[in-house]
Amino acid sequence: MLVCFALLHLFFLFLHVAPENQISRRYAGQIQSWVFPFFEQNWRLFAPDPESAVPQISVRTAHTSADGHYQVSAWFDLTAIDNAGVRHNPFPSHTTQNMLRRAWTGYLDSHSTSDVSYTDRAKMWQEYLRNIAVDRVDTRPGAVEWVQLRVRTSPVPNYDAAGHTHPLPPSAVDTRKLPWWKVTAHDH
Q1: What are the pLDDT digits (tens) for 8-60?
Q2: What CA–CA distances, in Å, run from 120 to 29, 33, 125, 172?
Q3: How far is Cα 134 from Cα 187, in angstroms, rounded to an integer?
Q4: 55: left (phi over 0), alpha (psi -120 to 50) or beta
Q5: Are 145 and 183 a contacting pair, CB within 8 Å?
Q6: pLDDT tens digits, 111-154
Q7: Which residues contact 57 (CB under 8 A, 6 or more apart)?
Q8: What is the pLDDT of residue 4?
């Protein structure tokens, strides 16, 4: 069973990276849903593209109280949790370092500035980002009905010859609030 699973996995990855052919065109939907976002092939190891901006991703939740009013939580910094998991850890997890940042990059690449998703892949990135946020803020089913993300993007600071950073003006930081996303029982 394990060997069959491994062969099927390798076959899907092969079809994903191979030049387009009749089989990959016919089963494109199944191949894409298997490969993205967990098994995506990325050649940045050989030609890295350094980050030019640093996103800080926060989330807040909302739910309906017993008296029917919406209760909105304070912002919870997801990026700080990731950074704490990496700092002072001699062997940090690749997932801890990249999951949230990669989900945000995928969302940015697939959505317009008005946060409208036009393709199934864009919807997948939105669901992936939402599920990461829901998974990290609350594990109690029903306690979270809506989530909203806020992303503050600041450019990577410049260093002078002595190694000191130049302060960034407040106008250099871009803040973007995403729309409220409904959380279903399936998302927990």
Answers
A1: 889 988 888 888 888 888 888 888 888 876 776 666 666 566 677 889 999 99
A2: 10, 10, 9, 33
A3: 7
A4: beta
A5: yes
A6: 888 888 878 888 899 999 999 999 888 655 557 889 999 999 98
A7: 77, 78, 79, 100, 104, 149, 150, 151
A8: 93
Torsion of CA 115, 120, 122, 127, to 10 degrees: 90
Residue 126's CB: how many other CB atoms inside 10 A? 20
**Quick one: angle between helices 120-137 and 78-86, nearest 10?**
70
Comparing CA positions, the residue from 155, 182, 175, 178 lying closest to residue 167 is: 155
Tokens representing 81 are 């949790």
- Contact in structure between 40 and 59 (CB atoms under 8 Å): no
Specify whether the CB–CB gap between 32 and 25 falls below 8 A: no
Chain position carrying tokens 């029917």: 68
Helix (H, G, I), strand (E, B) or coil at 187: helix
Q: How far apart are CA 60 and CA 72, in angstroms?
A: 7
Extended strands (E) in 33-166: 53-64, 70-72, 76-77, 146-155
* Global pTM value: 0.69
